[in-house]
Specification:
Layout: E1 4-7, E2 14-15, E3 23-26, E4 31-35, H1 42-56, E5 63-68, E6 71-77, E7 85-88, H2 89-94, H3 113-120, E8 125-126, H4 140-154, E9 165-168, E10 173-175, H5 191-198, H6 207-212, H7 230-240, H8 242-253, H9 257-265, H10 274-298
Parallel strand pairs: 1-5, 8-10
Antiparallel strand pairs: 2-3, 3-4, 4-6, 5-6, 7-9, 9-10
Helix pairs in contact: 1-9, 4-7, 4-8, 4-10, 5-10, 7-8, 8-10, 9-10
């Protein structure tokens, strides 16, 4: 089983203002505790997503299950080196898009795939710190294509403009690793809804239909009223970087169901119910098949 870190009651050193969840830094701002939303699986989904990133070799913030004063959550180690800062996506886009609504998180039509990819094509932006590039994935933009493929795989609906950014250090600027994946894998659903979708009497309530309705925080253009699905956001980025798209899809192809199931078997049963586990596994299988089936249509 994955261990559960017990955060000392008096650990809180510094509140983290970014985001909507209760979170704080401790041990000299090297560790971050993030509490899950009530009645959700935010904790196990964050841990599962972290381990799924490992299967792909995707650069990511590392998360462990944790508990603080009886509150369930996760702990992560800072990915910022000394003297570095995190420059968020809304700050970056506000520099290049007039009147960019940097204080909003969702419904931001100016948050387009094309604009984000244009920002990340800057040659001064390096791949994430400590991560080794591989064939056809050699730039920050190439790596971000992988982030969007990962979002499509886990049905992450929370890649808004504060959930990606750059690590700005005195000597270099790097793409930040992928982080904040709790709003994925159906973590916000109830077990009764999950059970209903796994054995639906109405095909409109199936897991397949559920993943099809996932919504990202990206738009195709600022004139569009509706955001893209995670799958279409990946498709849009992959159209701009086709070699990176295919390289990441090949990595996804190498992930087996036993690899995925092993991760969920290691989540303590007091953190995830059997039906939540089956639902998440079903989502991952369906989305993996969708991504790999559509690859042939893109190439």
């Amino acid at each position: 089983m994955f261990p559960i870190v017990k955060v000392p009651d008096q650990a809180r050193d510094y509140l983290e203002p970014v985001g909507t969840k209760e979170k704080f830094w401790f041990l000299g701002q090297t560790l971050l505790f993030k509490e899950g939303r009530p009645n959700t699986g935010d904790d196990w989904s964050e841990k599962a997503a972290s381990e799924l990133c490992e299967l792909l070799g995707l650069p990511h913030a590392k998360y462990d299950l944790a508990i603080w004063k009886g509150r369930k959550g996760v702990v992560s180690t800072t990915f910022l080196p000394p003297d570095a800062r995190l420059e968020l996506g809304n700050e970056l886009l506000a520099k290049v898009v007039a009147k960019y609504p940097r204080t909003k998180r969702f419904g931001v039509a100016q948050h387009t795939v094309g604009r984000v990819m244009a920002v990340l094509r800057n040659r001064r932006i390096m791949v994430p710190i400590g991560w080794t590039a591989f064939a056809n994935v050699e730039t920050a933009a190439d790596v971000f294509v992988g982030y969007l493929m990962f979002d499509a795989w886990i049905a992450n609906q929370d890649r808004h403009h504060e959930n990606w950014g750059l690590v700005v250090a005195p000597e270099a600027t790097h793409l930040a690793p992928s982080y904040d994946h709790a709003s994925s894998l159906g973590s916000g659903e109830t077990d009764s809804d999950r059970e209903d979708r796994l054995s639906p009497s109405d095909t409109r309530r199936s897991v397949d239909r559920y993943v099809e309705r996932a919504v990202s925080a990206f738009y195709l253009s600022s004139s569009r009223k509706k955001p893209l699905s995670p799958l279409r956001a990946f498709f849009a980025a992959g159209y701009l970087r086709p070699q990176a798209r295919d390289a990441w899809l090949e990595r996804l192809r190498q992930v087996s169901s036993s690899d995925v199931n092993s991760i969920f078997e290691q989540i303590p049963p007091e953190r995830i119910s059997p039906v939540a586990k089956r639902f998440a596994q079903s989502m991952l299988q369906i989305n993996q098949e969708r991504l790999l089936t559509l690859q042939g249509a893109w190439t």
